[in-house]
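Onboarding guide, step 5: your first structure request.
Type a short instruction followed by the sequence, for example:

Predict the 3D structure of this protein.
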Amino acid sequence: MESRKILIYLAVKYRGDWDAIYEAVKNRVLMKPQDIENTVSTLSCNAITFFDKEYPEELKKIFRPPFVLFYEGNISLLNNGIRNKIAIVGTREPSAYSISALEKIVEGLNENIVVVSGLAKGIDGYSHRFAIKYKRNTIAILGSGLDYCYPIENEDIYNEIKEKHLLMSEYPPGVVPSQDKFPARNRIIMGLSKVVFVPEAKRRSGSMITVALALDAGKDILCLPSNNYGDSGCNLCIKNGAHLVENAEDVNDFFDL
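The system replies with structure tokens like these:
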């Protein structure tokens, strides 16, 4: 039995739970070959596993690399490793200032830069929306199965990404979105990207967890300065050595394209 089929079977059986999949592999739990074949043959989306050549090498270096990535769309966007990918993360309640600045920066990005984010409300959704608007490629990493669009207000770009860009998740179809899955999703967003750009975030937020993961991985953090002096995660990051960015040129300088 192929190792990739076994991983897909386990990912579906354990609903993408990394610990459960790991324990099953470690303990060599008994599996019926017919169950494995049935699961793989009836899967409603595409999948790549840790053992496939398409699996991004950069994800093998992160904490708990996903065993399986389920996807819909243009898998070729994973080509070229991290060299042309930017992760954009931030608050779900962005100010008009950060939305406007984000749009101008995405509009001015080198045309070969791929925007990676999480399709969440706020900065994530705007990042994908602006990438599509200005004809940049984009990858959305979900904290659920690919059959769930969350939030529903992003359904239009969810459909656009699924058809023309790349929609990915470590969770198989049928897994509903939940708060505990978003931090895990963010490690994939970070891992796929050369740099992490934060247009706006609070000091205590999921975005700052992503920043911490990126720093541990030795990645550059780019931040838009904020006038929210009391609770700006961006200003704190800049104070601690993150790169202040004001325009697309500041971002493009980090890419050798």
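Each response can be followed by summary notes, for example: The chain has two domains: 3-72, 77-252.
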